[in-house]
UniProtKB/TrEMBL annotation:
GO cellular component: plasma membrane
Organism in which the protein naturally occurs: Nostoc cycadae WK-1
Membrane-spanning parts: 6-29, 116-139, 159-180
UniProt entry tagged with the keyword Transmembrane: yes
Subcellular location: Cell membrane; Membrane
Pfam families listed in its UniProt record: MotA_ExbB
Keywords recorded for this protein, A-Z: Cell membrane, Membrane, Protein transport, Transmembrane, Transmembrane helix, Transport
Xref: InterPro entries: ExbB/TolQ_transport, MotA_ExbB_proton_chnl
Name of the protein in its database record: Biopolymer transporter ExbB
Example GO biological process: protein import
Membrane topology: Multi-pass membrane protein
Source taxonomy: Bacteria, Bacillati, Cyanobacteriota, Cyanophyceae, Nostocales
Stated family: Belongs to the exbB/tolQ family.
UniProt domain MotA/TolQ/ExbB proton channel: residue ranges: 70-192
Primary localisation category: membrane
Amino acid sequence: MQISNLFVAGGVVMWPLLGFSLLAVALIIERVLFWIRITNRQNSVVKEVLKLYRSDNVVGALDKLQQNTDLPIARIFLAALELEEPTPEEFRLALESEAQAEIPLLKRFQNIFDTIIGLAPLLGLLGTVLGLIASFASLNIGDVGGTTTVGVTAGISEALVSTASGLVVAIFTLLFANTFRGLYQRQLARIQEYGGQLELLYRRRYERRGDR
């Protein structure tokens, strides 16, 4: 069945389903590029920053972070390292508050994905119901087995196209939405891990400064 025939068979709900599918594809592409950029660079940048900071090269660590401010973990580290002689508690709070500020960026578009996943099957079901209503409205009881009944049968089969289309859009979006949710949870774990390492290094540095 050609695309144009699918739209005719599915009825009016095929247009919002098309809009949902195009929106989902656009947002999925944006998220894929976002996560590729993070996963390809983040580990090497963080390891180098921690190495520089461990060797007391604070300026070098700050320069490296400034060069990678498009990474969430770099912005989190900068929020703490740019403070002027904070206490360990202030340093930890700066890391935590900036990490919280980065969460909406990491979870971006998740609500839209959830809306598409929920509404697409319902729109497909609505298309089926509307198709059945139209089919039975054209049914002539006195013409059972005739041309009208054949048309009703064809209308019922065509109405199911909208349900199938809605399910396809929802399943496709759900697959990527769950993938992005897993990446988000993994990113939070890494932020906590790397942030804890930086906090430990700062505490040691702060204690050495206090012993002098």
